[in-house]
Amino acid sequence: MPNPSPVLTALAVATALAAPAGPATAAPESAVPPKTMAELLAASADTDWRRLDPSSTLYLDLDAGRVIIELAPRFAPRHVANIIALAREHYYDGLAITRVQDNFVVQWGDAQRPLKGAARALPAEFTRTVDPAAPFTRLPDPDGYAPVVGFSDGLPAARDAAGATTWLAHCYGTVGVGRDNDAGSGSGAELYVVIGHAPRQLDRNITVVGRVVHGIERLSALPRGGGPMGFLDATATGAPIHSVRLAADLPAAQRLAVEVLRTDTPLFTRLVEARRNRTDDWYKVPAGYIDLCSVPLPARISAPSPAGSD
Amino acid sequence: MPNPSPVLTALAVATALAAPAGPATAAPESAVPPKTMAELLAASADTDWRRLDPSSTLYLDLDAGRVIIELAPRFAPRHVANIIALAREHYYDGLAITRVQDNFVVQWGDAQRPLKGAARALPAEFTRTVDPAAPFTRLPDPDGYAPVVGFSDGLPAARDAAGATTWLAHCYGTVGVGRDNDAGSGSGAELYVVIGHAPRQLDRNITVVGRVVHGIERLSALPRGGGPMGFLDATATGAPIHSVRLAADLPAAQRLAVEVLRTDTPLFTRLVEARRNRTDDWYKVPAGYIDLCSVPLPARISAPSPAGSD
Question: In a mutagenesis test of the A interface, which of B1, B98, B103, B220 is the best target, namely the one with the most A β-carbons within 10 Å?
């Protein structure tokens, strides 16, 4: 979860967690406006959250557990449809992680595995014409890589100066479609997830299809590949991919009730400000700025998970 | 190494690596100006590199191998001296990694372990008065977190608008000193390394003491901690720290000949431009911008390593 905390010493953390509740004379909770992210989330209403749509939610199951990806059909409709087709024909099942490049990406897929009905290559969906009906919460902070940035459908997104064209930004957890030099050579048969400092130079150069909302540490902590560009060399065995499934294709009882914080609410605006200018006791100098990829996009599992599925 | 590559498919990588050399009629190498980072580094001269100073180089030895940290005495002289004192009294030896927070930091230390001569707490060194003699290569790209950014002694650094005050920036690989809420509560007895998207909000809030120049994947791929803020919980055993040594305290034959690319050369300026506006066949849209923490700071081992030390 993108929730960087202060760099407290272990002892201070242990002390803080062990601290007794405040004295009986403390002000009632409602008198203290929430100011940290934890306090804001604790004060959030159910309407501040949005349940993931099972028809655009992927479960990637590894030995280490489940990784949950929210797909972005508004930004890459053809690629998202093809990834769903690939999942339905069980293309990904039994493959393995092929690339783990430190401070960059984890990648999987096999461009040579036969396909059943899914497409082998698709026209690029690097950018889109802005849909006036699409939600967009602008981040007021300037961005070096795009004239306008903000959040659309809970995803970090950018727009051109005219507001005519939009694209998804590469932040930690962004999921995209590997391709060769030809812009139209990707299909979803190779996917990657960002596990390092935001590689924003990829923006508008590759098709982004979504974001990991849960379990990214199951990818980011994988052993790094020893070959060029972090591909696994012949001596290494990549983490097996047990299956990739669309949540909607599973019985309802096997789906996880994952919610993500909405990015079009007053609470989200307050959360961004709480992170732009931190006012807790640890921080001495508020940054006065927050970059697009430092804005936390919290997720929570709102119902008990089926045994073994999380 | 901070060297993000294109997101090529595995097949394309295999093909590229297997590609035959150019035809015999190809232009001689000198006729083609280098344009990618790999080409620029291949064309670099020995004078473009700087050998690490053993008196400010730490070796952190884990089961997974060696992590090499370049210390920054110009920015945090008292903390660097104290960390060297801690290493010399073998304070770190036999400790373990205590915290692995995804997309944030790895941390180690034990604020309760008795010290011999090293200090338990030191006055903060969050910022410094600019030394006019210090090298500083300004990055022309605007930065949201500081009026001026660039590189000083090979480290990402920032300055205030007046050019009077400077500080090191938190990028992937940055090493700093954990502290409690009191600004003067750090000493180096707990250290952290950034393993995620640059947490620039920490800038000017904590003492930065250097940067990992080699082996960061031995930290970034560690299993994430299950407790609050990524601290390891009672069920987990942190990766053991065999030793932390100052390179100068080892016999010369046991030191690694690590060089880092100088950041005050025309080659470095060309490298930054090559990454700001990529012109290789894969990229379709050059970014036109590069953020401070996306600038690669290459290192190389220029002599054979002693057996088992790398």
Answer: B103
